[in-house]
């Protein structure tokens, strides 16, 4: 298709959406006594083929999670196949968010206390590491066994990663707090590339920046989401580790291009320590239901749990876009985030049951549509 037929696309997407797990199915899964029983229940759904190919009851949590991830990848490939140019290019860039995410986690492990021989196990247990961008599962395993940043960059260059050059440039700069600065510049590079891509489309395109379009709005909201995380992490660091507060002026740490996050205003409040004012402003965001008191939880008690909550709220917000038909790409965005929600939900169930966590506690973390 040279020209996207959105009515046809949305019919396909709604059909695919009908196969997503329902609330009663989650409730059944949460009551299973073991991961093996979870696999049996999921075998009665669209996951059956992937479970048959991947699942081993000798490594139940690891292999069932792999089956779930592979199913997710298959659904993404279907979407990319039925979406024509130039929309598929934009979708590819949206999916590279996960490459950035995985690269940042790999960089953090380089300076962590995790022994090299245990990093592959760490990757297995790190539910957020998803091979759904340009980097596949094998690439991620390779990333997590590098011993330094130079080795990681060399590996990415060998795989012709989009992020090879920017990481090379960052590594050549002598910076204090380099790990944080690397993550920050990666984020800025990634989102600037998407904004630049959107600006290349002609005036009659659905991506026209003079009109309100779904992909641009999504990217702006993602930037707002990332900036909220940055602000909350800065506050937490200031509260618990004042000697480690980021040495850069607050306004330099945020990602430009967001929709509603006022970088200048929030930066001023950070510099003055007026955190309650920040909480008041962030609370107006439709996906920022996080209070400063939650960020101030004592270290050691689910230290970054507020970021998990923020992610759940953001996913839930994007899923609800199915009710807004004024933008023809909203059904696609809603289905994509519904898939992410299902993936997250099943990871919670698999590793929760494997770890014998109370089902009631697990149920609180499930993202329902």
Summarize the structure in words.
The protein has 369 residues and is mostly helical. The chain contains 19 helices and no strands.
Outline:
With 369 residues, the protein is mainly α. It has helices at residues 6-17, 23-30, 35-42, 48-54, 60-82, 87-110, 119-125, 137-143, 149-158, 164-171, 178-199, 214-240, 250-253, 263-272, 275-282, 292-295, 305-319, 330-354, 359-363.
Poorly predicted regions are: none
The coarse overall form would be globular
What is the CA-CA span between the terminal residues?
31 Å
- SSE order, one letter for each helix or strand: HHHHHHHHHHHHHHHHHHH
Q: What is the radius of gyration computed over CA atoms, rounded to a whole number of angstroms? A: 21 Å
Count of DSSP H/I helices:
19
Mean pLDDT comes to 82
Strand content bin: under 5%
Main beta sheet strand tally, sense and closure: none
Number of strands: 0
Helix content: 55-70%
Provide the structure class.
mainly alpha
Descriptive terms for the model:
369 residues; mainly alpha; single chain; 63% helix
Blueprint of the fold:
Elements (H helix, E strand, L loop, with lengths): L5 H12 L5 H8 L4 H8 L5 H7 L5 H23 L4 H24 L8 H7 L11 H7 L5 H10 L5 H8 L6 H22 L14 H27 L9 H4 L9 H10 L2 H8 L9 H4 L9 H15 L10 H25 L4 H5 L6
């Amino acid at each position: 298709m040279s020209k996207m037929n959105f009515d046809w696309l949305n019919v396909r997407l709604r059909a695919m959406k009908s196969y997503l797990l329902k609330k009663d199915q989650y409730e059944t899964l949460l009551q299973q006594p073991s991961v093996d029983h979870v696999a049996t229940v999921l075998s009665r759904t669209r996951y059956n083929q992937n479970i048959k190919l991947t699942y081993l009851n000798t490594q139940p949590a690891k292999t069932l999670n792999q089956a779930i991830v592979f199913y997710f990848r298959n659904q993404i490939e279907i979407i990319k196949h039925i979406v024509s140019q130039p929309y598929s290019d934009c979708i590819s860039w949206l999916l590279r968010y996960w490459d950035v995410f995985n690269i940042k986690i790999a960089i953090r492990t380089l300076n962590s206390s995790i022994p090299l021989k245990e990093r592959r196990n760490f990757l297995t247990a790190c539910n957020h590491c998803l091979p759904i961008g340009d980097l596949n599962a094998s690439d991620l395993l390779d990333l997590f066994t590098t011993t330094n940043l130079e080795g990681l960059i060399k590996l990415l260059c060998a795989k012709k990663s989009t992020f090879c050059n920017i990481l090379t440039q960052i590594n050549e700069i002598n910076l204090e707090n380099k790990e944080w600065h690397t993550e920050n510049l990666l984020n800025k590079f990634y989102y600037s590339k998407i904004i630049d891509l959107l600006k290349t489309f002609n005036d009659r395109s659905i991506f026209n920046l003079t009109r309100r379009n779904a992909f641009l709005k999504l990217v702006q909201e993602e930037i707002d989401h990332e900036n909220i995380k940055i602000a909350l992490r800065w506050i937490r660091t200031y509260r618990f580790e004042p000697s480690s507060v980021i040495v850069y002026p607050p306004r330099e740490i945020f990602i430009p291009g967001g929709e509603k996050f006022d970088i200048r205003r929030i930066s001023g409040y950070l510099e003055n320590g007026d955190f309650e004012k920040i909480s008041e402003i962030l609370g107006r965001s439709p996906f920022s239901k996080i209070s400063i008191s939650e960020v101030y939880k004592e270290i050691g008690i689910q230290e970054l749990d507020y970021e998990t909550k923020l992610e759940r709220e953001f996913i839930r917000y994007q899923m609800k876009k199915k009710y807004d038909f004024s933008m023809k790409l909203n059904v696609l965005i809603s289905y994509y985030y519904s898939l992410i929600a299902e993936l997250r939900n099943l990871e919670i169930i698999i590793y929760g049951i494997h770890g014998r966590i109370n089902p009631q506690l697990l149920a609180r973390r499930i993202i329902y549509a």
